[in-house]
Amino acid sequence: MPNTRLVYRHRWPVRVMHWINVVCLFVLLGSGLQIFNAHPSLYWGQRSDPGKAVFSLQGGVDAQGAPRGTTRIGSHAFDTTGVLGASKVNGQWRSRGFPAWATIPGPGWLAMGRRWHFFFAWLFVVNGIAYVGWSLFSRHLARDLVPTRSDWRGFGRSVVDHLRFRHPEGAEAARYNILQRLAYLVAIFVFGGGIVLMGIAMSPRMDAVLHWLVDLVGGRQSARTIHFIIAVAFVAFVLVHVFEVLVSGPLNQLRGMVTGWYRIRDEREVTRHD
Amino acid sequence: MTDRRHFLRNTLLALGGATLAGCDRISESDTGARVLESAEAVTRRVQRFLSPSRALAKEYAESDISPVFKPNGTTMPDTPLYQSLLRGGFSDYRLEVDGLVARPARLSLEELKALGSRTQITRHDCVEGWSAIGKWTGTPLAAVLDHVGPTDAARYVVFHCFDTYDEDTPYYESIDLDEARHPQTLLAHALNSKPLPVANGAPLRLRVERQLGYKHAKYLRRIEVVASFADIGEGNGGYWEDNGYEWYAGI
């Protein structure tokens, strides 16, 4: 590799907390879907009146007696047999919201799903608080995440670059671009903070002191729905995040987040040899 | 490039599958379950710190009441004792209150009502995820405790129920004295201004508003004040607790 050099891109607390977060989000998603499966419908408001679901995954049988999974969003119904609403567990058809390959544990087991969820929820919260605290203290937040004025000026160009899967490889690659900064800020504060708050808003004990928050979002069932929507948003974030890693040199990116060292093109070298 | 993509995809799928299988193995191991269960104590302590023990659950307006209050779990206890009480309109019903108390009692519904009354419109949150709002009228448990006088050794209140699960496992529940003396903790005999329907726990059920639905034991037969619930059922403080659910059901 001619004219490249390694730069120290991610400090160790970022790396450690990033990977803790990977484990947390993986388990929280799987166990969250397990918990969702206990009542695979979402509502708006305080209550969950039958027939008033805004989203549901229902299992049943069709006219021929064959298993049928139906996903309902508002008044629209979709046949999602095999994946959502009805799927096979160990070769047996079951009515279940999300399939066994997406839930922790695999088979229907609400009690254990809750155990996983709350254990890793605490880890996620502690990790998140540690991350925000460290980011403020070390100025990681101010220096690396909050966009500068020149970042904002490059917004349009950055969008075009991303759409063309063109990634900076020189000194620019050593710092986060504007879309990265915005994506990370939203993921950390809007998604991370929001999903924890909506989780807490579902707690009957915490509602005794936080009913203003529950009312603010429209009710306890609204909080449950928002909790679910943010989980979907996290999945979307992770898909885009992993996609960007794959198209911008996955091994280099992976080394960056494991060892901290990231290889960039050395533009000084390039100009010298030009 | 396609080879590498294939390799990456297959690696990710294999890793994901192995991780999920690993999670299932952890779930089934004693150590794994014990580690995961340690979160319950953290939740209990943090929630009690952030939400004071006297804080009241939100009370709603009449217009917020659910059209139907969804019954869950047992909806008709089939034990002969319960069936005969039901046939008699619960006129022979007596709630036994005993254990670590100065004055054990057997209370009829009328005697219970004479001890005090509170009506509250609250939201019921099931562990499954659904919520219903209902208007409950009942005797504050604190008044019943004052009537029988718990001894100094008393720490928990155990609720023994008429209904059974899995053929012959009686339903039971327990809460600590702090929760038992909370002003909204009721022995409810009415739902939405009508006598408690059988499906919702007639003649008497517990309301413990800041915890999940399974704590709200229905079909109360006997209340026992204890120092420890280790010797009751399988020792975890309740039927669902014996089946892996949290004793502290604040979330």
TrEMBL record, chain A:
The keyword Metal-binding does not apply. Residues 9-260 form the Cytochrome b561 bacterial/Ni-hydrogenase domain. Its main location: membrane. The chain crosses the membrane at residues 12-36, 116-137, 182-206, 226-247. It is found in: Cell membrane. Keywords: Cell membrane, Membrane, Transmembrane, Transmembrane helix. It is a multi-pass membrane protein. PANTHER family: CYTOCHROME YDHU-RELATED (PTHR30485:SF1), NI/FE-HYDROGENASE 1 B-TYPE CYTOCHROME SUBUNIT (PTHR30485). This is Cytochrome b561 bacterial/Ni-hydrogenase domain-containing protein. It comes from Luteibacter jiangsuensis.
Automatic annotation (TrEMBL), chain B:
Residues 91-227 form the Oxidoreductase molybdopterin-binding domain. Coiled coil: none annotated. PROSITE patterns: PROKAR_LIPOPROTEIN, TAT. Gene3D superfamilies: Oxidoreductase, molybdopterin-binding domain. InterPro entries: OxRdtase_Mopterin-bd_dom (IPR000572), OxRdtase_Mopterin-bd_sf (IPR036374), TAT_signal (IPR006311). This is Molybdopterin-dependent oxidoreductase. It comes from Luteibacter jiangsuensis.
